[in-house]
Amino acid sequence: MGARVLDVYRQEKSFGAAGDLQHALDLLSAARGGELGPSLRIYQPRPTVAFGQRDARLPGFPDAAAACRDLGFEPLVRKAGGRAAAYHEGCLVLDHIEPEADAVRHSLARFADFAQLLAGALQHAGVPAGVGEIPGEYCPGEYSVHGGTEARVKLVGTAQRVVSGAWLFSSVVVIEDSAPLRGVLTAVYDALGLDWDPSTAGAAEDLRPGLTVAGAEASLLAAYGRYAALRTADPRHLERITAPGTTVFPTAAPAR
């Protein structure tokens, strides 16, 4: 554990909703090609609803995408599976990329290990957090990080992409301003005809009043500091990395 070094890139400038999502794949390609070492990119995303491939095939998808735009969120279709998830500037996205010869070998363990790391970070920030799917949550997952004791809310969703020679583990941590997320998810899931419980959409500040994005980020970095030695890196290095031919296309559904 102590031998690991992780370069931390705090991205202040957004590439746009689609560009930020695309850039994670660019970084994965760079790690695979030996142009990027173990790295952690952190940024506050633009208002986005990231749909899964299955969502995009449902009859209600055009209405769901239009509802996103009506509410100020950009609808995108991600390459990963899962169901629709929403995020905005009150969230943090952590893209953890590492080159690894046998990237598939520990893929399942990564979900469990990083879920515990993220839950521990939130606990350090004063949020009662645990790991596991909660009934009725949006974009359900076995390794979701939730908060609360009786009335639990989803606080972190994770996804992973593995290629030959590298892996990408992405986490979205919801920290502030849950109401707009709950609103857009309600409209989206209604349009898609999917059941869910809106009360499961929340933010860390709902459970720990006064917690800010900056405060949560400090706790997250402290947790990652127990995984590896952290080294502050220049985010301009990431801006020079692109990988043509792997574009994530935004949806083209018109607003109602």
Label the CATH architecture: 2-Layer Sandwich
Roughly what percent helix? Answer: 25-40%
CATH top level class name: Alpha Beta
Strand content: 15-25%
Figure out the total of helices: 8
Q: List the domain count as a whole number.
A: 1
Q: Give the distance, in angstroms, between the N- and C-terminal Cα atoms.
A: 52 Å
Radius of gyration: 17 Å
Order of helices and strands: EHEEHHEEEHEEEEHHHEH
CATH homologous superfamily annotation = Bira Bifunctional Protein, Domain 2
- Topology, number of strands: 11
Architecture overview:
The protein has eight helices and eleven strands. Mean pLDDT is 92; it is low at 244-250. α1 links the parallel β1 (5-10) and β2 (39-43). It is an alpha/beta fold and 256 residues long. 33% of the residues lie in helices and 24% in strands. It is globular and about 45 Å long. The longest helix is centred in the middle third of the chain and has 18 residues, at 107-124. The chain has an eight-stranded mixed β-sheet with strand order 7-8-9-10-6-2-1-11, sandwiched between helices. A three-stranded mixed β-sheet has the order 4-3-5. The protein has one domain (5-239): BirA Bifunctional Protein, domain 2, CATH 3.30.930.10. InterPro entries: aa-tRNA-synth_II/BPL/LPL (IPR045864), BPL_LPL_catalytic (IPR004143). Keywords: Ligase.
